[in-house]
Amino acid sequence: MDTVLYGLCAGAGWATFAYALRLLRRHPTPARRALCIAFGAFAIGVTLAIPPLATGIETGLGLPNLAKVLAHGCAMTIAASAEHMLLYLALPAAQAATRTRRWVWITAGAYLVMVALYAHTLGYDQPVQLTVEYATDPAVSAYLLILMVAGFFAYCIEIARLCWKFARICDRPWLRRGLRITAAGAAVAMLYSTNKVIYLVAYWSGLQPTGEREIAAVLVTIGALLMMIGLTMPAWGPLIPLPRCWDHLRAYRRLGPLWHDLTAALPELELDPQLRRPLVALRDLDYALTRRVAEIRDGRLALRPFLDARVTQVAGALAEQAGLAGDDRLAAIEAAQLAFGRRAHRAGVTATQPHPAEAPPRPADGYAGEITWLTRVATAYHQSPVVAATLDVTEHLTATGPRPQPVGDPHP
């Protein structure tokens, strides 16, 4: 079974390496260079781990365990390169370079010690294998422990930590998904290391458990495939239409409460009432989402005469008290303005301290950013306690006033 699984990984590894090399040639960056090295090392290492090939190399050269030592070196290169790539994504270039050099020196030092231990085993009268079955030999145990600690545990913990941390603040959906899948692959690699350590302890305790090679092959296959998928997903993911449709459907639904309130207050905003029928909207989701985005923007402009500068001040203070910052704070303020404007329009009370007539925020990354921003505003409008508290504090501003004014006319 391990021959089939390692062969599967080898095929996937070479295909992924070719894809990463193509990406590197199109747009060379330190992160892509590290990714290419990682996939190249993986393809070589897992190919060397195929049992018949490993046996042929070692028999032909007369050096037992050589293929295994080379494969382990490739595994450590993979971990170091993946760490390198993530550091360049998460940190400024100078800081990433400093931390990368530190990891490279640690990895190189650990591997040199492993090579020295391997060379020591070549002088034995009875040859040993660098596997858990020979764990009672101190050199073999030391070799395997260095591999597990320096080659897997340290790197995989750091890779999983960086991936989850970066995924939480990343605004690119495919990169966020890829980072989370990579973190899952790193977690499986930690299970592989844990499995090795458990078997080492078992053999040192005098037990003779079986099945370690099969378990290791399964864990290596799962972990490697997850990491290959996760690390390349930001490049090929946007080409898949189904997730994009799902993202648009989710955005369409999240914009619903805000859109329904605005079109209920301003029916003239709705230019295609047929889109209220779910099947009609789903038939052309891109068009339905575009209409919903445009009508929310039109509603904001129509409510501008009713937006009061004092509402912005109150919402800003409440958002700060709630610990909101950045886009979350701006979205809560925008949502509070819309909620107040809708109430003021219903009461017919135009603003006595009009809000400045600047255009609403427009993200730099085009239509996708527009959808992301309005979805954030709609979520705050529907869920944020800042919006509800702002309406309570500013209730007196719409308690009394002149008779209702038509939308767009700020003068009584």
Keywords:
single chain, 412 residues, Rhopdopsin 7-helix transmembrane proteins, 75% helix, disordered C terminus
Word description of this protein:
By secondary structure, this protein is mostly helical. The protein is elongated, with a radius of gyration of 30 Å. The protein has 2 domains: 2-239, Up-down Bundle (Rhopdopsin 7-helix transmembrane proteins), CATH 1.20.1070.10; 243-398, no CATH class. Residues 401-412 have low confidence and may be disordered. The chain has helices at 2-26, 30-48, 51-61, 66-90, 93-121, 138-169, 173-204, 212-236, 241-254, 256-265, 278-283, 285-302, 309-321, 326-347, 366-383, 385-393. Helix 7 runs antiparallel to helix 8 and helix 13 packs across helix 16. It has 16 helices and no strands.
Present the secondary structure layout:
Elements: H1 2-26, H2 30-48, H3 51-61, H4 66-90, H5 93-121, H6 138-169, H7 173-204, H8 212-236, H9 241-254, H10 256-265, H11 278-283, H12 285-302, H13 309-321, H14 326-347, H15 366-383, H16 385-393
Text of the CATH class of the largest domain? Mainly Alpha
Q: What string gives the helices and strands in order?
A: HHHHHHHHHHHHHHHH
Overall radius of gyration: 30 Å
Integer tally of domains: 2
CATH superfamily of the largest domain: Rhodopsin 7-helix transmembrane proteins
The CATH architecture of the largest domain would be Up-down Bundle
Q: Tell me, rounded to a whole number, the average pLDDT.
A: 83
Strand content: under 5%
Q: Report the total helices.
A: 16
Number of strands: 0
Q: How is the biggest beta sheet arranged?
A: none
Structural class: mainly alpha
CA distance, first residue to last residue: 82 Å
Cα shape: elongated
Helix content: over 70%
Q: Catalogue the unreliable spans.
A: 401-412
